[in-house]
Structures are given as structure tokens and as C-alpha cells.
Amino acid sequence: QRVLRLAEMCRRLQTEEEKVLPFYSSSLAEGEQQEAQRVLEEAPTEPLAQALQDYLGLELFWQLFNKAKLEEQALGLEQQALRERNQQLRELLGQYLAGISGSQEVPGEPKPL
Length: 113
Description:
Radius of gyration: 27 Å
């Protein structure tokens, strides 16, 4: 039930573009795509493959979930880079303000900037 609620929440938050074209095009060649489709249509013989066949309906959910996780990680990396840049700018601003204020402890030292 939790997965179904998450899927419904994801559906409501999708943009119009994602509803029409939710994923990037496949990087497989035409022949590879046909081979993959043929393998998917075959009846599974191994027990694990049979169990996975029961969950094919969740494939779209997992694709959306994985896409969201990748975007979350990318945004986290971008946020960290922005934090670091912000810290650098704060340090530069501090040096600039210290340089123009004229409040130096040792009068003979050159100004920071």
C-alpha cells in the first residue's frame, strides 16, 4: 500500500513533459532492443526469474524512483559546490572589508588585498 501511495504521489508531481516522455531514449541499437524484447516475452524457467515476472507492473514506478534518486544526488552535489563557493566568497569579502577598514594590528604590514 505504501508503494501504491508513493506511485500516486509521483504521478501527481509529474510535469506534463514527464507524462508524455518520461524517460530518455534507449542507448541500445535496434537489433539489441528487439533481442531484449524477445527475451522479456519468453516464459521464465528459473525460479527467481518467475518471481521477478510478478513484479513487472512496478517497473515504471522503479524507473521513476531511480530517476528521482539520481536527481536528488545531483542536486546534493550541486548544493555542496554552492556552499563551498559561498564560503570562498565570504572569506574574500572578509579580506576586502578588513583591507578597506584600515584596522590592522601591525601598521607596517601590507593590506590583505
